[in-house]
Amino acid sequence: MSIRKMIAAHPDVGGHVNEPLAEAAKHAMYCGLIATSCADACSAEDMDMTQCIRVCLDCADVCAATARLAVRRAGSNESALRAMLQACITICDICADECEKHDHEHCRRCAEMCRECARDCREALATIAY
């Protein structure tokens, strides 16, 4: 199953898919899950990972909400979509910065996904009209 195919099947889209937005939705969904997994792994570490857990969970929530808004094609709410994409960029940058402070494989992977998600959201944001 593909997010792009699902969006293309929407009656209001007529087969046209905003590719950068579809990619951002997909990666925001993945990033939310990876950040949740990282927070869980952080909770099992022997050191105090409170801040990393908090930031990862915040990132997961924002990414999940962003993905949901990005795949909605009925009607329009560009101002909310732009705000969510910007929020996703911000929290992904914050999460990546925090995870990069730690020498754990799960944090490295989370930081990498956050950087990718932020990049995709920036590209999608450029396609959303004001």
Commentary on this structure:
This protein is an all-alpha fold. The protein is 73% helix and 0% strand. The longest helix is centred in the N-terminal third of the chain and has 25 residues, at 19-43. The model has no long low-confidence stretch (mean pLDDT 95).
Describe the secondary structure blueprint for this structure.
Layout: H1 3-8, H2 19-43, H3 50-70, H4 78-99, H5 105-125
Helix pairs in contact: 2-3, 2-5, 3-4, 4-5
Count the beta strands.
0
- Measured as a percent range, the helix fraction is over 70%
Q: SSE string, helix = H, strand = E?
A: HHHHH
Task: Tell me the structural class.
Answer: mainly alpha
Q: End-to-end span in angstroms?
A: 31 Å
Contiguous low-pLDDT stretches (5 residues minimum) are none
Question: Major sheet: size, sense and barrel closure?
Answer: none
- What is the radius of gyration computed over CA atoms, rounded to a whole number of angstroms? 15 Å
Average of pLDDT: 95
Strand content: under 5%
Question: What's the tally of helices?
Answer: 5
Instruction: Assign an overall shape.
Output: elongated
